[in-house]
């Protein structure tokens, strides 16, 4: 599920607890980011780009990207 949340909490991905690979913190906030392509942008179709779910570490700010 793609969503944006400023709430910092624990998440699981594929049944495994998400942990920051940099600081090992286990709480994240989420956002959805469009993965823009040159072609879609050139023709004004940014809305058609695929989206990625981001988990942002609540401690160090490292961003994990997951293709949606």
How would you summarize what this structure contains?
With about 70 residues, the chain is mainly β. It is built from 1 helix and 6 strands, in the order ββββαββ. Strand 2 and strand 3 (about 15) form a beta hairpin.
How would you characterize the overall build of this protein?
The protein has 68 residues and is mainly beta. 7% of the residues lie in helices and 41% in strands. The protein contains 1 helix and 6 strands, in the order ββββαββ. It has a 4-stranded antiparallel beta sheet with strand order 1-4-5-6, with no helix packed on it. A two-stranded antiparallel sheet has the order 2-3. It is elongated. The model has no long low-confidence stretch (mean pLDDT 84).
Largest sheet: 4 strands, antiparallel
Major β-sheet strand ordering? 1-4-5-6
Oligomer: single chain
Order of helices and strands: EEEEHEE
Strand content: 35-45%
Descriptive keywords:
68 residues, mainly beta, two-stranded antiparallel sheet, 1 helix, 6 strands
Q: Can you lay out the helices and strands and say which pair or pack?
A:
Blueprint lengths: L4 E5 L2 E2 L2 E2 L10 E7 L3 H5 L8 E7 L5 E5 L1
Antiparallel strand pairs: 1-4, 2-3, 4-5, 5-6
């Amino acid at each position: 599920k793609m969503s944006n949340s400023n709430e910092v909490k624990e998440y699981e991905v594929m049944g495994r607890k998400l942990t920051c690979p940099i600081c090992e913190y286990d709480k994240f906030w989420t956002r959805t980011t469009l993965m823009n392509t040159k072609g879609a942008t050139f023709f004004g179709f940014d809305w058609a780009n695929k989206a990625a779910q981001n988990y942002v570490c609540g401690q160090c700010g490292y961003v994990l990207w997951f293709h949606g």
